[in-house]
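Worked example 3. Consider a protein that binds 3-acetylpyridine adenine dinucleotide.
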Amino acid sequence: MARPKIALIGAGQIGGTLAHLAAMKELGDVVLFDIAEGTPEGKALDIAESGPSEGFDARLKGTQDYADIAGADVCIVTAGVPRKPGMSRDDLLGINLKVMKSVGEGIAANAPDAFVICITNPLDAMVWALREFSGLPHEKVCGMAGVLDSARFRHFLSVEFDVSMKDVTAFVLGGHGDTMVPLTRYSTVGGIPLPDLVDMGWTTQDKLDAIVQRTRDGGAEIVGLLKTGSAFYAPATSAIEMAEAYLKDQKRLLPCAAYVDGALGLKGMYVGVPTIIGAGGIERVVDIKLNKDEQAMFDKSVEAVNGLVAACKGIDSSLA
Ligand code: A3D
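Given these inputs, the predicted complex is written out as structure tokens:
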């Protein structure tokens, strides 16, 4: 059987890391597409030359031609611009919306059967726009944010409790922004929910609240440290986890920005929710029950995403 084909649209910091991870995990052959001449070609060759030492079999190609992504099984989109210190994700909307138009058209023309994972910010609005521009089925277009936000939450919790992060599960819902909703009630250490661990004296409510806030600010913390761009190692790893779930039909339960129509009381919108990812793409949106406080936080997050989608419609009349 031929190797799967993974197209990476955008060969910047995340795109290059995605290519390296996909090759090292032998998920398939990789095509790196970027408008910056030389960047995708250089990264593809550099990573291919690490193959003999690493011992992976994968072909890598860099290109400026959408025809080279033809027949891709997975497309991961990072094309656009990242944040600089002082910028919010929403400040990127105008520039990245135009990028989503060209990317959506490129994917529709060359890889209409692909499972598409968008990473470009502001995430929830960009994945919505990418779906509109590409016209692909909703279940084949999703956004990566929840896996990363949950991973950040899990990392902070594993340090706080001094336990293996393998035993920490965590849930973050809602839009990928300041209003994201880390759900402590559904987050556990070895199955013990966080509120119980507070009662058991493992941590205090104040410390837990601080970890929740640090999770919400996780992207900005890294932007502040790097100064020249935003996080790329963990975002790439998170998207690869989603791509692997699709390619290997793993039926993983992963939070991601998916099209929700009916579940959680929502009607036809993209937002961060728990999903099952398998060979059918987003095979199911998990309709979890929220309590009153969680629902209020989720509603606020949904409102913020709707505001960004309305802004997209104001900029590009073809979306209205
Ligand atoms: P960067 O290293 O600047 O790479 C972006 C690449 O996109 C550059 O190489 C550009 O040349 C390329 N590009 C620009 N326009 C086009 C186009 N029209 N077609 C093809 N390629 C184009 O950024 P990055 O890799 O650090 O980040 C990429 C995106 O991911 C940004 O929008 C970030 O804000 C976003 N991001 C999202 C998360 C989430 O959790 C959702 C986390 C981190 C970064």
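Take a moment to read the result before moving on. The mean pLDDT is 96. Residues 170 and 187 are 4 Å apart (CA to CA).
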